[in-house]
Amino acid sequence: MIAITINGQHREVEADPNMPLLWVIRDLLGLTGTKFGCGVAQCGACTVHLNGEAVRSCVTKISRAAGQRVTTIEGLSVNNDHPLQQAWAEMDVPQCGYCQSGQLMSAAVLLRENSNPTDQDIDDAMSGNICRCGTYPRIRAAIHQAARAQQEGAKP
Ligand code: FES
Questions:
Q1: Residue 119 belongs to a domain
Q2: What is the CATH number of the domain that holds 124?
Q3: Domain end point (choices 75, 105, 122)
Q4: Which atom of ligand 1 is nearest to the CA of 132?
Q5: What CATH number corresponds to the domain at position 12?
Q6: What does each C-alpha distance from 10 to 2, 5, 71, 102 come to in angstroms?
Q7: Which candidate, 6, 60, 52, 47, places its Cα nearest to that of 28?
Q8: Are the CB atoms for 5 and 70 separated by under 8 Å?
Q9: Residue 32 and residue 107: Cα distance in Å, rounded?
Q10: What pTM was estimated for this model as a whole?
Q11: Lowest CB count within 10 Å: 4, 124, 128, 152, which one?
């Protein structure tokens, strides 16, 4: 048994230590907001937080997450009300939507570390998250909007 804290809840899973964290999240814990994209850490669709840092869960072994704190898109906020989620909805960022949970998880780390990112900061931080629908301009605009909202007092 491998214990992890996922979205604030203590869980134990029966898994091979080499199993990708993504499989555990989706198949063993039933949290399907995190997506399988490329499987080789090149697209960012599977991005989650491990102890607050963005990781590609498709190439992160569950053994690395043992005893650690994992956050998925389902745990980013209590009521889908993270400033980024609100900005995403207000600006209709998603197109097909497949990449968007990974985009949000990467953007959340960026905003936590840089409360007022420039376009360049955003492009640098988000460069590992591919969007085949090309929503990059809206992603950038939504991150700016969330940054403004956060500075005006919205809860991160
Ligand atoms: Fe379709 Fe990004 S919204 S891949």
A1: yes
A2: 1.10.150.120
A3: 75
A4: 4
A5: 3.10.20.30
A6: 11, 4, 12, 23
A7: 6
A8: yes
A9: 19
A10: 0.96
A11: 152
Work out which ligand 1 atom sits closest to the CA atom of 96: 1
Asked if 50 and 63 count as a contact pair (C-beta separation under 8 A), the reply is no
Residue 43 Cβ < 6 Å to ligand 1: no
Checking if the pLDDT of 154 tops 80, the result is no
Q: Whose CA is nearest to atom 2 of ligand 1?
A: 131
| 62 occurs within a structural domain | yes
Range of the domain at 55: 2-75
pLDDT digits (tens, 9 = 90+) for 48-73: 999 999 999 999 999 999 999 999 99
Q: Give the Å distance between the CA of 134 and the centre of ligand 1.
A: 7
